[in-house]
């Protein structure tokens, strides 16, 4: 037990991606790049992309339903839905649309934005709602469609991102707590390294009264700075989460990182002295799906039989904000 109220277990997971995809070879017909250039620098082979008929809330709902089915829980039993996303269908949020789509009419639903760290932050938030006794069944969803926000003429960013959604169900448990430890951080002074900023022009409404009228510009990233940030902070935050869990790296069965770049994942596992066979990676198939990447990778690993009940998983999300965090949990109820 954790010393608060109810303990927390993760009982189901699910994921969804668009059917269409763009390979590196196909992308090289759009911008000046090549399969070799992309793979050697990122590890990405292709990315799944949502067309106009596919909404963020649709992908999120599909992932959520799969997680509920695995846990054998009805949507009507869900108390809270947390949707981690930076790309909602509606600027006011998409969680309520997901609630409606899956028929979880008892649940309160709201969006949470922490970019590529979003799923991890939402998972910690769900844990606290359960530990305080406020809710018993919480759906945590990470979903993004960043293909709608990248500049497809900028090879530094358009090669990286794909679309998708992943979800887990967190449930109260009276005896065992499988959320073992976590650590979260932010540093807004580094926002310029990775952002999707609003820009506009001044619009006068009357003498002395002006507003700004504009739009959000495509995603911008300083890849070198983000790499340095990730390889420095991610091992550190995982070690802090392990300390809170009274565990060491030798206790880790699987490392499930935000799927941003294979070189980052390799560097992190090296610094933690974890062998490559303990690192879960589906980056080659999906690219960087932002808030969806951790639950998408977890779901595939669980359904393939790689991750088994009782396995200890170390996970870390990192990205715009800048934000980063680590969490240690045991899979299954």
From TrEMBL:
It is an enzyme of class 2 (transferase). One of its GO terms (biological process) is fatty acid biosynthetic process. Pathway: Lipid metabolism; fatty acid biosynthesis. Residues 110-188 form the Beta-ketoacyl-[acyl-carrier-protein] synthase III N-terminal domain. One of its GO terms (cellular component) is cytoplasm. Its EC number is 2.3.1.180. Residues 243-331 form the Beta-ketoacyl-[acyl-carrier-protein] synthase III C-terminal domain. It catalyses: 2-methylpropanoyl-CoA + malonyl-[ACP] + H(+) = 4-methyl-3-oxopentanoyl-[ACP] + CO2 + CoA; (2S)-2-methylbutanoyl-CoA + malonyl-[ACP] + H(+) = (4S)-4-methyl-3-oxohexanoyl-[ACP] + CO2 + CoA; 3-methylbutanoyl-CoA + malonyl-[ACP] + H(+) = 5-methyl-3-oxohexanoyl-[ACP] + CO2 + CoA; malonyl-[ACP] + acetyl-CoA + H(+) = 3-oxobutanoyl-[ACP] + CO2 + CoA. It is found in: Cytoplasm. Keywords: Acyltransferase, Cytoplasm, Fatty acid biosynthesis, Fatty acid metabolism, Lipid biosynthesis, Lipid metabolism, Multifunctional enzyme, Transferase. InterPro entries: ACP_syn_III_C (IPR013747), ACP_syn_III_N (IPR013751), FabH (IPR004655), Thiolase-like (IPR016039). Residues 259-263 are annotated as: ACP-binding. It holds the Pfam family ACP_syn_III_C. The active site is at residues 116, 258, 288. One of its GO terms (molecular function) is 3-oxoacyl-[acyl-carrier-protein] synthase activity. SUPFAM superfamilies: Thiolase-like. Catalyzes the condensation reaction of fatty acid synthesis by the addition to an acyl acceptor of two carbons from malonyl-ACP. Catalyzes the first condensation reaction which initiates fatty acid synthesis and may therefore play a role in governing the total rate of fatty acid production. Possesses both acetoacetyl-ACP synthase and acetyl transacylase activities. Its substrate specificity determines the biosynthesis of branched-chain and/or straight-chain of fatty acids. The last Arg residue of the ACP-binding site is essential for the weak association between ACP/AcpP and FabH. Homodimer. Belongs to the thiolase-like superfamily. FabH family. This is Beta-ketoacyl-[acyl-carrier-protein] synthase III. It comes from Microcystis aeruginosa PCC 7806SL.
């Amino acid at each position: 037990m954790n010393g608060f109220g109810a303990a927390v277990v993760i009982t189901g997971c699910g994921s969804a991606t668009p059917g269409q995809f763009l390979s590196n070879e196909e992308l090289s017909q759009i911008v000046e790049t090549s399969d070799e250039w992309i793979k050697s620098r990122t590890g990405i082979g292709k990315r799944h992309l949502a067309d106009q008929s596919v909404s963020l809330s649709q992908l999120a709902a599909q992932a959520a339903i799969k997680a509920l089915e695995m846990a054998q829980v009805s949507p009507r039993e869900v108390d809270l839905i947390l949707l981690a996303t930076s790309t909602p269908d509606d600027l006011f949020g998409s969680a309520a649309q997901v609630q409606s789509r899956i028929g979880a009419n008892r649940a309160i639903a709201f969006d949470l934005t922490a970019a590529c760290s979003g799923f991890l932050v939402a998972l910690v938030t769900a844990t606290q709602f359960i530990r305080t006794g406020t809710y018993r069944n919480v759906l945590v969803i990470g979903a993004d469609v960043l293909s709608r926000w990248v500049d497809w003429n900028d090879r530094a960013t358009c090669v990286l991102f794909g679309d998708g959604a992943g979800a887990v169900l967190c449930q109260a448990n009276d005896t065992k707590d499988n959320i073992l430890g976590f650590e979260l951080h932010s540093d807004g002074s580094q926002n310029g390294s990775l952002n999707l900023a609003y820009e506009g022009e001044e619009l006068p409404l009357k003498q002395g009264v002006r507003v700004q009228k504009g739009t959000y510009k495509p995603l911008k990233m300083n890849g070198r700075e983000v790499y340095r940030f990730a390889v420095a902070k991610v091992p550190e935050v995982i070690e802090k989460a392990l300390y809170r869990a009274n565990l060491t790296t030798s206790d880790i069965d699987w490392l499930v990182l935000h799927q941003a770049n294979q070189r980052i994942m390799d560097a992190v596992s090296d610094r933690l002295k974890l062998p490559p066979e303990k690192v879960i990676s589906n980056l080659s198939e999906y690219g960087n799906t932002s808030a969806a990447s951790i639950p998408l990778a977890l779901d595939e690993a669980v359904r393939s039989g790689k991750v088994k009940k009782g396995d200890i998983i170390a996970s870390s999300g990192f990205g715009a904000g800048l934000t980063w965090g680590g969490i240690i949990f045991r899979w299954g109820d």
